[in-house]
Design goal:
The protein is α/β, with parallel strands linked by helices. Helix content is about 40%, strand content about 15%. It has an eight-stranded parallel β-barrel with strand order 1-2-3-4-5-6-7-8, surrounded by five helices. The structure holds NADP nicotinamide-adenine-dinucleotide phosphate.
Length: about 290
Amino acid sequence: MVAAAIRSDESWHNDAMPIPPTPPVPDFLYGTAWKEDRTAALTELAIRTGFRGIDTANQRRHYFEAGVGEGLAACYRDGVVTRAGLFLQTKFTYQRGQDHRLPYDPAASLANQVAQSLASSLDHMGTDYVDSYVLHGPASGHDWTEDDAEVWEAMRKERAAGRTRLLGVSNISLEQLEQMLAAHGEPPGFVQNRCYAQLGWDREVREFCRLHNIVYQGFSLLTANVPVLRHPMTQDIAQGTKASPAQVVFAFARAVGMLPLTGTSDAEHMKEDLASRSLTLTPESVRAIECIAG
Ligand SMILES: NC(=O)c1ccc[n+]([C@@H]2O[C@H](COP(=O)([O-])OP(=O)(O)OC[C@H]3O[C@@H](n4cnc5c(N)ncnc54)[C@H](OP(=O)(O)O)[C@@H]3O)[C@@H](O)[C@H]2O)c1
């Protein structure tokens, strides 16, 4: 389980609402993007292999959320896991990030789009709550806008109603996080960003997360960092620890406080990625990888 404590969000729940305990956050998330008609089978396989955190989005363009639901149902049916044993995370995506297969009425207000999108996600996944609901990305590449503020307040209402336990935001810059905190007086529970070694592994955003007790979720750790995987130093560390370069990168990510995602479609890689949890790098190796490219 991830060491960073997530602040209990119970204070935002309505008093009349029974409050489910905040679940522990798993130490690896299995990402379900780009799997199309293999989504159900791969989600099921990931859970059977040992993943307990699932990341998806109600964005049919890149995710097949109903397929995730089918994979979950197969696991429940065979007694592999119960709903309470899983951490389910999905996202609200603005219309400009979608194709024509929208999970809401585009004529509705943004607040209503959030409610409709989450209702559809719950239906897709056969559950009455998710563990984490994430804004897929702010409306602008620069600022935290009024649209973002409307969406975020709607997401907070969903949390107050018990339909999500925690909230997060993705594809966000340090400046936007600062503006968001100033506007709402509350940091998100999660930040999910693409993590480039060239950008110091998103060092500034990670530092903001550390200061505000936010769990930083890193994606594209392998695909965005091929030069790191091929770097002689990574290869040396891998050889010295009898691990693969991919495992070294995931172990590094955890060592610097990230919650990593993997989107592997390969059964052996699923096992390998999970096994990285027992790989501990020396502080020197962690520092060396952190400085490899930026
Ligand atoms: N918030 C956002 O905007 C956003 C954007 C992108 C992704 N995501 C989330 O993050 C998830 C993961 O995406 P990602 O970009 O990190 O990963 P990804 O591109 O889905 O896949 C990881 C890549 O690494 C390879 N791989 C995995 N484990 C490996 C291993 N042990 N050895 C060698 N190769 C390995 C995989 O190949 P094999 O399949 O052959 O193993 C695949 O090519 C997505 O599914 C999605 O849930 C979110």
